[in-house]
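Lab notebook, bench 4. The sequencing result for the construct came back, and we need a structural model before the next group meeting so we can plan mutations. Quick request posted to the team channel:

Model the 3D structure of this chain.
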Amino acid sequence: MALKVGDKAPAVLGVNQDEKEIKLADYAGKKLVLYFYPKDNTPGCTAEACSLRDGFDDLRKEGYEVLGVSADSATSHKKFIAKQNLPFDLIADTDKKLSEIFGTWAEKLLYGKKFMGMLRTTFLIDETGTITRIIYSKELNTKEHAAQVLSL
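Done. Here's the predicted structure in token form:
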């Protein structure tokens, strides 16, 4: 069952691009933009990451930290971070455990074919670890994502 507004985020979020365990407690006292995206180095995912990169200072001024999640490997994330000069960590959710908890690993439909994949979704988490807002793919603007978060 997917997490919803009002639920607490899990204590352990996963491992980052450096294979270091990332915990919710690492962000204690800060708000967190936890965004799930389908794949490193694809057009929409790159636009979203770059929007969050470009708006990173403004997000931090508002008390936010940023953390991305996809099913890509730590190695893939490391390359993506270097290529796009991203100032935030990416979780390598290769076993899809975190995505399943948040309900972002689900059946998708593309050109009439059904397959399992990552739903582009952003969770805003407050200083206490509680989910306060969910931005689903239909309302998410990849090119303006940082501004979208700041306008909420």
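The two ends are 26 Å apart (CA to CA).
Will bring this to the meeting.
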